[in-house]
Amino acid sequence: FVQSEAVAQMWGRKKNNTSMTYEKLSRAMRFCRSAGYFADVPKNGKFPKKLCFRFGQKAHGWKDL
Questions:
Q1: What is the rounded CA–CA span in Å between residue 48 and residue 42?
Q2: 2, 33, 51, 52: most buried by Cβ count inside 10 Å?
């Protein structure tokens, strides 16, 4: 993400949660990573260490959005 707070606000609007912050969103995304919806991003210098995500095996239907 380049504008993490903007992403959190958009997600909050989608979920009808006007108090959504990036801290709350990132906590949910950490859970989604452990559940398999996001996969680990290689830490080889090609990707930034933070705010970089990749869809995992359980993520489906996102291309339709």
A1: 9
A2: 33
Task: Please write the tens of the pLDDT for every residue from 7-53.
Answer: 999 989 988 998 999 999 888 888 888 888 888 787 777 777 677 77
DSSP string, 6-63: HHHHHHHHHTT-TT--HHHHHHHHHHHHHHTSEEPPP-SSSS-SSS--EE-TT--SGG
Residue that has been written with the tokens 């950490």 in this structure: 30
CA distances (Å), origin 65, targets 31, 43, 45, 56, 62: 22, 28, 30, 17, 6
